[in-house]
Q: What sequence folds into this?
């Protein structure tokens, strides 16, 4: 458990300390009961993207394995940023990964990865 949390902390520090490269995509997605805003994001394949998730109401979660985001990110009041580099094009649908109430099942984020 300790090793896991240290590794997690180091990964977080690395993610925060990573310089933003020219041309890097930056997208912020807000989560509230029961929607992601924007509801659709578009990323370029093979291009690094910094995704920031911020909750404005409730606690939610997201995982998008199709673009390399395989662990659930819990979205609370503190924004969380992750970097991904999508490896294939396609239209994917991510669902809220933390049960948040009656509208949970309708809480979707469409992720389009284009050339
Ligand atoms: Cu939910």
A:
């Amino acid at each position: 458990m300790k090793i896991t949390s240290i590794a997690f902390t180091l990964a977080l520090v690395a993610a925060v300390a990573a310089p933003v490269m020219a041309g890097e995509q930056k997208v912020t997605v807000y989560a509230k009961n029961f929607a992601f805003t924007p509801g659709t994001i578009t990323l370029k394949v093979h291009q690094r993207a910094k995704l920031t998730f911020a909750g404005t109401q409730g606690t939610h979660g997201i995982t998008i394995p199709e673009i390399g985001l395989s662990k659930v990110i819990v979205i609370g009041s503190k924004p969380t940023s992750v970097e991904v580099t999508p490896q294939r094009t396609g239209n994917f649908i991510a669902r809220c990964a933390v049960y948040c109430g009656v509208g949970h099942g309708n809480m979707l984020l469409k992720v389009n990865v284009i050339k």
